[in-house]
Amino acid sequence: MKKIRLRCPCGVLLTSSDEDGLVETAQEHLAQEHPKLAGEYSREQILSMSF
User: In angstroms, what CA-CA distances link 15 with 18, 43, 44?
Assistant: First the structure.
């Protein structure tokens, strides 16, 4: 199964098997590692940075 990925500017590679999972993973990463950015990115913005 193909993974969808997103590399955070901090260098962490986030992966998931689907878009919903990647958005959730990205939001969790932001909340934990970059709390000032938590909630600042929409689903569309997160997915536009994915590959």
Answer: 9, 15, 16
